[in-house]
Amino acid sequence: MQQTKKEKYFSDVAIIGGGLAGIVAALDLLDADRNVIIIDRDSRERFGGLAKLSFGGIFMVNTPVQRRNGIKDNTSLAFSDWNSTAEFGSKDLLPKAWAEAYVHNSLNDIYYYLTKHSVGFFPVVHWVERGLHQPGNSVPRFHMVWGTGHSLIETLAQKLLHHKNLNRLGIVFDARVKSLTRTNGRIDGCIAQETKTGRELIFKADHVVIASGGIAGNLMQVRKHWPKHLGQTPETLLNGSHPFAMGDLHAQAQKFGAQVTHLDKMWNYAAGVHHPNPKMENHGLSLVPPKSALWLDSNGERIGPQPLVTGFDTRFLVEQVCKQKEKYSWQVMNWKIAVKELAVSGSEFNDEIRNKNLIGFLKTVWFGNEGLVKLLTNECVDFVIANSVGELAEKMNQLAGRNSVRPEVLEKTIRAYDDRIDRGKSFRNDDQLRRIAQLREYRGDRVRTCNFQKILDPKAKPLIAIREFILTRKSMGGLQTDLRSRVLDTKGKVIPGLYAVGEAAGFGGGGIHGKGALEGTFLGGCVLTSRFAVRSILENL
């Protein structure tokens, strides 16, 4: 990177955004002896974006980890599962092509790429998004990074910052890109402003890569593009994304004719709670809901007729909550269930995994995570705890600010479920119990799922109720790109010099996931789209 007195910076490639996608692109470019500059809106301490806060699960197909676990997977099955979940429309040609490219390239371009860079994975593959009414993941594919997303980013960032070609790398933090620049029909840079000084910075490059994320951190944009089939946007919507996932660069690229698609396709979660120590407005946490808890509506009645159980179809859970009159829900459980099954999605509240404390992690697997439950019941406003159903209903009403939960209704709901457990294995005619039985057949779920635990078991008290809201996470639409990650205009033509990767590109093609994701495809999509972009760039440098 060369700096002039006019605050102009010159490089072969300018990357806008310092998240996972931006870091991967920079690494590959340095490997190819190219000059790179990263312009990141965030601070140096938060380098890595949302991926650093993630759980670190990555969807990959036919990996050595799967084979060691006896999991028989192949690209044909994975692509079939992807299509079943995505429900692509007739015009989704590029998203579907990207989906096919993902499943065929995940082994070499994601798994072997990451392991080459010293990223390690759990020995057991997690099985999520199994599908509810149609196929989801037919086999386990969710590969958890040992150390969570925090380790994923730290490992790659260290590779970047200690690269043999470090002299070819420049990183500018705390700088917000305000506009792209174009000369003779080609995007050739961008103009940014330092957030602390207000000073203007000019960047010139042969190629510009947008890696700035999506719109899920901008609740105004989320409400603007809210999916019509979900009805009116919930009154309370929590932000589980990144505060700088604002969609700014979508708008800037559109000024140069870029096509933005599928912004109404979102990956939100149904079990969001208010962050005990918020870092931004409406900051939320995404819970991994206990499978043995009862999922109830605002009146304390079981949502149905099909009970809600996590692990099968996240989109279905969100849709069912949004169908309720009050678009929030409750989960009711006891202390034993919470300790065994409750988790938070992300690196922040998973200390043992994030810190690679194997002994500590194994203890939480076998004995549960009582520390987490104590922290959340003490510090999260959405948790209430009681020794009786009547007391629980009273506290739920106090929290909600309305007397909508009637104690007798709540008790009837809970006892009906407990009674079905009491009837014995052959007579448990309840879909939630059938799904728990299915989950416990896989060893990765059995150790974290109670063995048909009754809620009103006196030995398992106190009772816990958790108020849960819809929480934003990822926007699945974005800048439309071809299979070389080049941004396309509204006529389908390449905009010279401009690339988009990761969430900014809808993780590939402007909407690689269609209507629903198989999970783990977000981090994987960041890696894949960036590697494809760099290959295209190197052909033209």
Automatic annotation (TrEMBL):
Keywords: Flavoprotein, Membrane, Oxidoreductase, Transmembrane, Transmembrane helix. The keyword Transit peptide does not apply. GO terms for molecular function: oxidoreductase activity, acting on the CH-CH group of donors. Residues 12-523 form the FAD-dependent oxidoreductase 2 FAD-binding domain. The chain crosses the membrane at residues 9-30. This is FAD-binding dehydrogenase. Gene3D superfamilies: FAD/NAD(P)-binding domain (3.50.50.60), Succinate dehydrogenase/fumarate reductase flavoprotein, catalytic domain (3.90.700.10). It comes from Leptospira perolatii. Coiled coil: none annotated. Its cofactor is FAD. InterPro entries: FAD-dep_OxRdtase_2_FAD-bd (IPR003953), FAD/NAD-bd_sf (IPR036188), KsdD_DH (IPR014614), Succ_DH/fumarate_Rdtase_cat_sf (IPR027477). PANTHER family: 3-KETOSTEROID-DELTA-1-DEHYDROGENASE, KSDD-LIKE STEROID DEHYDROGENASE RV0785.
